[in-house]
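Section 5.1 Outputs to date
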Amino acid sequence: MKIYTRTGDEGGTALFGGGRVGKDHPRVEAYGDVDELNASLGLARSIEMMPRIDEVLVPVQRDLFAIGALLATPDHEKMREQLAKARIDEARIAELERAIDTCEQELEPLRSFIIPGGTPKAAALHVARTVCRRAERRVVSLAREIELPPLVVIYLNRLSDLLFMLARVANRRAGAGEVTW
């Protein structure tokens, strides 16, 4: 199988499960931002290996693949299949919340805004957090046009909070202070 097909040379792309749309279609924008988020998490994982942080991110990356497939699927039954495959349900949201709670136990309480930065690992996690927020905005926008499972927005919202906390933890574990606003 060749990587290039030439079918997108005129600005269109195929959807998972059938159909074609323009590459600037809101659906493509949404799953493109989720793909970018996944890549940014891969970058964050590759910087300053921190096993306990990186172990949290690998399943998130798997979830994001399934969310991307869901967003690229116009067929509602296939959407449900992708959601089930990813295990994105209330229990998965609770796992993200437990990871956030675990981070909070390790950190000083937040008393002011944090300026993104610190170690390369923390900075990469902050970038991933902002990409996550953009993906969330795109999915919210798409959900105004098509029916999407509400758990997708909830997942991205929780994930951005988790990424913020992981960035703070990465700085703390590296002995780097946080710059406040």
